[in-house]
Predict the structure.
Amino acid sequence: MIIQPKIRGFICTTAHPVGCAKVVDAQIKYVKAKGHFEGPKNVLIIGASTGYGLASRIVATFGYGAKTIGVFYEKGADDKRTASAGWYNTAAFEEQALRENYYAKSINGDAFSHQIKQQTADLIRRDLGKVDLIVYSLASPRRVHPDTEQVFSSVLKPIGKTFVGKTVDPMRGEVKEITLEPASSDEIAQTVAVMGGEDWEMWVDFLAKENLLAEGVKTLAYDYVGPELTYPIYKEGTIGKAKEHLLQTAAKLQAKLNPYHGQALVSVNKALVTQASSAIPVVPLYISLLYKIMKEKGTHEGCIEQINRLFKNYVYGDLGAVRDQDGRARVDDLEMERDVQQKIMGLWGDVNTENLGELTDIEGYRDEFHRLFGFGVSGVDYSAEVDPVVKIESIGVG
């Protein structure tokens, strides 16, 4: 099969196994070049196949020598379609981890379900004994509640009033105005049910009940705050309500982990091109401006740099006690530097379709989006035939 990108809206429906493998390999090389550190030994990553979750797995393995179990919900290839990018990412990660004699196993299924939690617990008990780090990095648009079987769907909407603002179609290079009507109370509640902390807490509670938490266990979840520019549709919108719930959950989990001398931590990370962020109005235009300014300043970081710094400094390093007023670690500090945000605000009112390429790094945005799916990667012949069916060692062929 000759695999080319097929993009619909903010989703690419194809992925390239060779390109994805090269992207994973580059992240592994970055972590290995930074050295080896003392930290977690047995790590569970929930949402381990893309973005910050994948970066967490790579850092834990190649930066700390940890054994990892990754949980995710990805699709293998068939006669008519490629596998998902997360499938190819995991196959490449496992192949290299096993080649270098690191333990790495994966579970593919609905992480919200009791079945997958039990399957994960059984694997931990059999192979690891207990876990000392749990990373929660799910980014799903919907959730089937495991107790009630009610289906919840998240929405990206403002709260209280209609939002009118500027956004960009990054593939077409069109800056346009967008209007979003406010969310209903039911939509807010459903978004919190999907993206809040309930499932994170259910995971930790279940593993505790199964006696699988090690002394000193840590658990991490990831957040984003961003500038006032994005507040109406992020911090003050439906997603923001979900993130408030996530932070409240961290406080509850901290109390539950105190007997283990453990820690529950929310990390506020930098805005990056991910499958999730691409769907949020306003954010792609903001990221395009942010990338240009941070690259010019020499402070731009991707997922792997962010997570490597988070682990080294905040989770297992000297800055472990440094928190913001809400008790969160802040690795978005370089994004939120005053001069960076002032430059973005100075350009925001002027940017339009005609000057988009001049004022922003829209090309960099597009490149990053394509790389999420293994496209636009140096050294890959995209005109060559490639087998879309790739094996994940611990799962099988797909």
In short: The radius of gyration is 20 Å. Residues 7-397 form a domain with the Rossmann fold fold (CATH 3.40.50.720).
